[in-house]
Amino acid sequence: IPATVDARAIADMKDKWEALGVAVQGPVALDLAISIEACEHKGYKSEGAGVADILLAPCYEVGNVLGKSLTYFADAKSAGVIMGARVPIILTSRADSAETKLLSIALGSVVASDKTHDICNK
Does the structure show a pLDDT above 50 at 119? Predict the structure, then answer.
């Protein structure tokens, strides 16, 4: 499955992640990324297992479904930014709340002013 190959390649960029002070795991199923109980039940052990701070999706469509599911079913807060361009691109939906749009602008501003994101673009 191409998405799992991509996830492994991203996780294997250890030098870039260590420079940013983060640990990246993948590919990891959603339940193992966000549920300590699921990790215990399945015997999955990895740094950050069950307590992921960030979830990366393999494509826009999957990320969109995941984000909207969390927003509408779990009342999650979100912010959308596309990385990889010269500057962050704010990504919102027409149906997003004013708070989500503001959070997206704030996240884009933080990313734009943070020089460590340049490491990811090399």
Answer: no
Neighbouring residues of 121: CB distance < 8 A, sequence distance ≥ 6? 84
Structure tokens at 81: 């930014």
Distance between CA atoms of residues 31 and 42, nearest Å: 10
Helical residues (DSSP H) of 1-122, grouped into ranges: 2-11, 14-20, 30-34, 36-42, 60-74, 98-113
How far is it, in rounded angstroms, from Cα 48 to Cα 50? Answer: 6
| 102 or 15: which leads in pLDDT | 102
**What sign results for the dihedral spanned by CA atoms 34, 36, 37, 43?**
positive
- In this structure, how many other beta carbons lie within 10 angstroms of the beta carbon of residue 39? 19
Other CB atoms within a 10 A radius of the CB of residue 17 amount to 17
> For residue 75, is it left (φ>0), alpha (ψ between -120 and 50) or beta?
left
Over residues 56-83, mean pLDDT: 90
Tokens of 109: 């501003």
The average confidence (pLDDT) of the chain is: 88
